[in-house]
């Protein structure tokens, strides 16, 4: 049995039994890990209060080759997320981001400190964000692509004919629209969208419907190029709550 102390992001909680839940973490030192946490809400069980989705903690884990789940020895809050309780747009995004990160990070078998640091710094920025909130989840998914080695390789503009469509699957321009293709109008906008960053996302004045279309394309792109990435269950909830994300 060994002990590891590491920063970790809280991804998801799954009920395991009447007495325990499994809290899924992505840690900087050991990558994805599941932990067994008591369900009791007594004052002595302060551990559970630190382990809310998207929070960042410093945690000491007991690891054993004979057990699939780690045991928590000690935990301290690093970056709690308060804005999700006061900002409707961030509250809706939190539902999406926690499931998205849980699904995609649970497929990674090795730690990646650059990936961890990028997600951590992005969520810290998101907590204090006042402009561009409605576009944050789009920008986050876009800028996360290089960390999984699947950033789109956009062909030379000169290779695109008038009315051509960009294929998300083949990453090339096609003379007619096929499955997993953008429309000609969407293809025209793609180079501009790919330049979106946290510094510029407030200037992209999308409607709620347009954000929904872009999100669907981004998730389809992830599924096409990361075959273990599943459909997300939270999207209907995100769309229902999305009305409150209409501000920039």
Highlighted features:
7 strands; DNA recombination; NA-bd_OB-fold; DNA damage; 33% helix; DNA_rep/recomb_RecO_N; alpha+beta; two-stranded antiparallel sheet; 2 domains; disordered C terminus; DNA repair; 248 residues; 5-stranded mixed β-barrel
| Beta strand count | 7
SS-based class: alpha+beta
CATH class of the largest domain: Mainly Beta
CATH architecture grouping of the largest domain = Beta Barrel
Widest β-sheet, arrangement of strands: 1-2-3-5-4
Order of helices and strands: EEEHEEHHHEEHHH
State the separation between the terminal residues, measured CA to CA. Answer: 49 Å
3D structure, described in words:
This is DNA repair protein RecO. Pfam families: RecO_C, RecO_N. InterPro entries: ARFGAP/RecO, DNA_rep/recomb_RecO_N, NA-bd_OB-fold, RecO. The strands form two sheets. A five-stranded mixed beta barrel has the order 1-2-3-5-4. A two-stranded antiparallel ribbon has the order 6-7. It has seven helices and seven strands. It folds into two domains: 127 residues, Nucleic acid-binding proteins (OB fold (Dihydrolipoamide Acetyltransferase, E2P), Beta Barrel); 111 residues, no CATH class. Helices cover 33% and strands 22% of the residues. It is α+β, with helices and mostly antiparallel strands and 248 residues long.
């Amino acid at each position: 049995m060994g002990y590891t102390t590491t920063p970790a992001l809280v991804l998801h909680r799954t009920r395991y039994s009447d007495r325990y839940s499994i809290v899924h973490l992505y840690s900087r030192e050991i990558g994805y890990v599941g932990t067994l946490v008591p369900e009791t809400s007594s004052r002595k069980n302060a551990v559970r209060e630190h382990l809310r989705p998207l929070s960042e903690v410093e945690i000491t884990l007991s690891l054993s080759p004979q057990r699939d789940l780690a045991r928590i020895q000690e935990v301290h809050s690093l970056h709690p997320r308060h804005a999700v309780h006061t900002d409707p747009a961030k509250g809706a995004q939190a539902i999406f981001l926690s499931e998205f990160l849980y699904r995609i990070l649970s497929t990674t078998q090795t730690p990646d400190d650059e990936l961890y640091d990028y997600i951590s710094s992005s969520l810290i920025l998101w907590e204090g964000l006042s402009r561009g909130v409605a576009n944050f989840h789009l920008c986050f998914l876009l800028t996360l692509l290089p960390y999984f080695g699947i950033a789109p390789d956009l062909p030379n503009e000169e290779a695109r004919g008038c009315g051509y469509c960009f294929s998300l699957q083949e990453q090339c321009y096609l003379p007619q629209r096929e499955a997993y293709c953008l429309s000609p109008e969407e293809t025209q906008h793609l180079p501009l969208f790919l330049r979106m960053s946290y510094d510029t996302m407030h200037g992209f004045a999308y409607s709620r419907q347009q954000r929904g279309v872009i999100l669907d394309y981004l998730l389809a792109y992830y599924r096409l190029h990361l075959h273990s990435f599943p459909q997300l269950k939270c999207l209907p909830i995100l769309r229902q709550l999305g009305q409150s994300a209409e501000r920039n």
